Amino acid sequence: MSDFCNDYQAFADKLIEKIHAQSEDKHFYVAHTNSQEANRNWIEQWRAEAPNNNYGVKEIKLLLGNIAYFSLSSFHSFQHAKETLTAAFTLIQYSNGLILDLLGNGGDNEQTANAILESFIDAETPLPFVIESRQEKVIPPVPSLFPGQSMVTSGHR
């Protein structure tokens, strides 16, 4: 491991590998930057590139049986992503089912995540999940939407 201590990026890569293996949380990311300014620039660059990356809309296709497959790689600002997400959901609105693939989705904007979830449930139904951000943790009541059934989604393999 001492070989990694002399190379900042190798150390960061090894640290990510160990944390992912232990926690199975693929959202964790470490990178070496020379300054706080460089770190802020990385985030600003990611946001600036969002339009060229379709605001995280990675792939949409119809599978056999009229099942829609929708791969979403990130949750960008809803204010900016709304038009692209609306177009994506309009395209698949008449499908018989949906596979929403969030593998590799690092998250980011809870308003966008909420808007996507709300598109699947009645507007009067409380959101059935925990909202956790850097600022707060909110646990809305969980209604019995699917009596006798379970629904599990995950961004991890």
Notes on the structure:
It is a single chain. By secondary structure, the chain is of the alpha+beta class. The protein has a domain at 51-138: 2-enoyl-CoA Hydratase, Chain A, domain 1. The protein is built from five helices and five strands; from the N terminus they run H-H-H-E-E-H-E-H-E-E. It has helices at residues 2-5, 8-23, 36-48, 78-91, 110-118; strands at residues 57-63, 67-72, 97-101, 131-132, 137-138. A hairpin with a 4-residue loop joins strand 4 and strand 5 (137-138). It is elongated, with a radius of gyration of 19 Å. This is S41 family peptidase. InterPro entries: ClpP/crotonase-like_dom_sf.
Distinctive features:
single chain; three-stranded mixed sheet; 2-enoyl-CoA Hydratase, Chain A, domain 1; 157 residues; alpha+beta; ClpP/crotonase-like_dom_sf; disordered C terminus; two-stranded antiparallel sheet; S41 family peptidase; 5 helices
The CATH architecture term of the domain at 51-138 is Alpha-Beta Complex
Number of discrete helical segments: 5
Please state the oligomeric state of the protein chains shown. single chain
Overall geometry comes to: elongated
Instruction: Please state how the strands of the largest beta sheet are arranged side by side.
Output: 1-2-3
Largest pleated sheet: 3 strands, mixed
SSE pattern: HHHEEHEHEE
The H-level CATH homologous superfamily of the domain at 51-138, spelled out, is: 2-enoyl-CoA Hydratase, Chain A, domain 1
Q: How much strand content do the residues show?
A: 5-15%
Uncertain residue ranges: 142-157
InterPro entries: ClpP/crotonase-like_dom_sf (IPR029045)
Protein name: S41 family peptidase
